[in-house]
Amino acid sequence: MRRVLVTGGGSGIGRAVARDFAAGGDHVTIAGRRLDALQETDGGRGMECRTADVADEASMKALFDTPFDIVVANAGMGRAARVADTSLDLWNTTLAVTLTGVFLTFREALAGMKSGGRLIAISSIAGLHGEANTAAYAAAKHGVMGLVKSLALEVARHGITCNAVCPGWVDTPMAETAVANVMKRFDIGRDEAEARVFGQKPSGRIVKPEEVAAAVRYLASPEATMVNGHGLVITGGET
Ligand code: NAD
After folding, report:
1. Catalytic residue selected from 21, 68, 137, 169
2. Which of 14, 122, 131, 168 is paired with 215 by a 20 to 30 Å CA distance?
3. How remote is the CA of residue 157 from the centroid of ligand 1, in Å?
4. Which of 5, 6, 13 has the most ligand 1 atoms within 8 A of CB, as the residue to mutate?
5. Is the same domain home to 99 and 54?
6. Could you write out the three-class secondary structure of the chain?
7. How far is the CA of 116 from the centre of ligand 1 (A)?
8. pLDDT single digits (tens) 154-175
C-alpha cells in the first residue's frame, strides 16, 4: 500500500486530493494546523490526521517521522494586494507558507523517500505568469516552480519525480474568500464579483478541486514515471 502525505489537507484542493488517494486504497496522512478540519476531511475514511505548520521547520521535521511514497505539498495562502499596499508582514508570511513551506515539505520528504517516490506541488498559473494585485503570491508560486524544476534534476537518478500542477481558479474556500472580499470592497453582488475575480473562462466555469486531484493522481501513477520537472496546467484552456 502506498503511503501518501497531503499538506493543507483540511479544505479545498488538499481535501479532494486526500479523498481521491484514500478512495484508491492508499494509506493517507493529512497535515494541517486545525485538527477538526483534518478530521472532517477524513470523515471515517481511515486517514491519519497530523497537526503541522508547513512554515515551521521543527513542526515539519516531526511530521516526517515515517517515510512517504507520495508527498503532495498543497498548503498555501495568498491575499490580494497591490505591491504598493503589500506590507512586509504579508510578503513574508506569503513566502513562508507558500514557498518555504513547499521547500521544507520536500526536503524532509527526501530523507526517507525510495525509488518510485513522487513529490508533487500544488502551484498555480500565478507561478507561470504575472498577475496584478497578487505579487507576493505570484512570486511565491514562481519560486515553487523554480524549486520543482531544480529538485527534479537532483532526484531523477534516484527514480523519484518532482512535478507541479498549475490550476487556474479552483472552487475552494480560497476562491470564495477572494469573491467575498471583492463583494465587500466594491459593494457589488456575487455575479459581478465573480466576473471581476475570475474573468472570462473559455469553458465558462472555474476548475473543480476533484479535477486537480485527478491530475495529481496521474502524476503519482506509474504511467507518469518519465514526467519530471513539469508544471501541469489545469485551466480549461484559459492559458
Ligand atoms: P484553501 O484555503 O482551502 O486551502 C489551503 C490549505 O492550506 C488550508 O487547509 C489551510 O489551512 C492550509 N494552510 C495554510 N497555511 C498553512 C500552514 N502554515 N501550515 C499548514 N497548512 C496551512 O485553498 P485551496 O484553494 O484548496 O488551496 C490549496 C493550494 O492550491 C494552495 O497552495 C493554493 O495556492 C493552490 N491554488 C489554489 C487555487 C484556487 O483558485 N483555489 C488556484 C491555484 C492554486
Report:
1. 137
2. 131
3. 31
4. 13
5. yes
6. CCEEEEECCCCHHHHHHHHHHHHCCCEEEEEECCHHHHHHHHCCCCCEEEECCCCCHHHHHHHCCCCCCEEEECCCCCCCECHHHCCHHHHHHHHHHHHHHHHHHHHHHHHHCCCCCEEEEECCHHHCCCCCCEHHHHHHHHHHHHHHHHHHHHHHHHCCEEEEEEECCECCHHHHHHHHHHHHHHCCCHHHHHHHHHCCCCCCCCECHHHHHHHHHHHCCHHHCCCCCCEEEECCCCC
7. 26
8. 999 999 999 999 999 999 999 9
